Amino acid sequence: MSRLFITGGTLIDPERRERIDANLLVDDGVIRAFLPRGDEAPEGAKVLPAQGCFITPGFIDPHGHIDGHTYTGELSLLQGITTSVGGNCGFSPLCIGQFLRNQRSFPIHQAELVGMCALREAAGALDAFAPATPEQIEIMELLCSRALCEGAAGVSLGPGYTPGASLEEMEALCRLAKGFGRPVSIDTRMYSMTDLHSLQEAIELAEVTGCRMIISHFAYQYGVGVEYEALEMLELARERGVDMQLDSGMYKDWCSAIGSALFEPVTMRDNGIELCHLRMATGEHIGQVPDQTLYEHLRSRHPEDAVIVNTGDEEAVYAIQRYPQTMVSTDTGSYAPGEGHPQIAGSFPRYFRRMVRERRELSWEEAVYHTTLLPARVFGFERKGRLREGFDADLAVFDPETLCDCADFPGLGRPDAAPVGMRYVIVSGELAARGGKTTGVMAGRALAAGSFGHEIRA
Ligand SMILES: [Zn+2]
């Protein structure tokens, strides 16, 4: 276990939303003490100079698809993310206990939701366009309970990928999550480009079952001219006591597998997505805009290839990030080096650059709250997202003047280019990244729900 002494930086406390001038001693994996400037380095401590830097809790990504993929974990770490919630959009490992046991040594901490699509598949509901039968729902419930017992952080619903999913099957899973005191995330349906029925459906699921409901990547779902109406619906539901939450990223263009239901011709038509909006993010045709022949070839022969959809409105991205309840997310996916969407490497630095430094939409203190304490509360990470003595020493140390994302879309740049300005990232009290490079330390742990507190509140 390392002893680290971080000197000369300014601490940002997301609980009080204030700055503290102090040196920070990290010891045995926890924040040990705030020491006055000028104090000597405690014995045996490695000094990390942080002049000109902010020191904040490590960022918590409420929506990723790292799911044990080491390279993606490293790209998150280099952004200052120290905890990621995986298993989103309905896709997760089925055996959460086994997954968590296998993740003992990883660049960052991982919590894992259990996904509806995985449960459907295991129950034999293989047709994405048909509802699960009552017998299949019973099996899904059994498997979901087992996952929650084994430490799943919650449940993720993916009706966007299984348009046939019925309200009954989603309700059954929401009730289980509620029973365990864990949240539900939902990748809402894509009925049409400007549809809000999908949001109404999610609100009703939360209202009927009493569960905490997180709308996934809000800008990707509603950042097409209906963002204000969508936020208002969410706010009205919250006012009448429905536990609605949301995560959203820093890009207007989303990314998914070309073979998925999202790219069925009818879904594309109803959502106004044309081939000219697509750009391949992985595989042999990376960077290419597919024509009809290539689209059909990829759907049938390379359904796993990822494609970026250039729709959405950039101002909507910022409007959603201004909402006081928004958690910043990456929606990161697992790709080979050089492939993917810039969200895998640029999201959090881009958030601070755009929202705070350039557009002055938020203060540093507010932005740090949105990236640390807010998600910690929503998921019940009791010992994370705070700068307090005795709490987990997951920290991001960055230069607020130079912090900048460098990732770009395939064809324009490298989607996995590491940001600049992130001086240190500390995971469990160990120096995991320094000067934009990983140190090779694997201090991330699997976070089984129950070990980080059952209570969820926000
Ligand atoms: Zn996702």
Q: Could you characterize what this model shows?
A:
The protein is α/β, with parallel strands linked by helices and 458 residues long. The protein folds into 2 domains: 88 residues, Urease, subunit C, domain 1 (Roll), CATH 2.30.40; 284 residues, Metal-dependent hydrolases (TIM Barrel, Alpha-Beta Barrel). Helix content is 31%, strand content 21%. The protein has 14 helices and 22 strands. The chain has an 8-stranded parallel sheet with strand order 8-9-10-11-12-13-14-18, sandwiched between helices. Strands 3-2-7-19-20-21-22 form a 7-stranded mixed sheet, covered by helices on one side. Helix 5 links the parallel strand 11 and strand 12. Helix 5 crosses helix 6 and helix 6 packs parallel to helix 8. The chain is globular, with a radius of gyration of 21 Å. It starts with a strand and ends in a 20-residue tail after the last strand. The C terminus is likely disordered. Bound molecules: zinc ion. Zinc ion binds next to loops.
Globally, the shape reads globular
Assess the beta-strand content as a share of residues: 15-25%
Number of strands: 22
Structural class: alpha/beta
Largest sheet entry:
8 strands, parallel
Q: CATH homologous superfamily of the largest domain - what is it? A: Metal-dependent hydrolases
Rg on CA atoms, Å: 21 Å
| CATH-derived topology of the largest domain | TIM Barrel
CATH class of the largest domain: Alpha Beta
Could you tell me the mean pLDDT? 96
Overall tally of domains: 2
CATH architecture title of the largest domain:
Alpha-Beta Barrel
Total number of helices = 14
Detail the poorly predicted runs: 453-458
Note the gap between the termini.
32 Å
Sheet with most strands: strand arrangement = 8-9-10-11-12-13-14-18
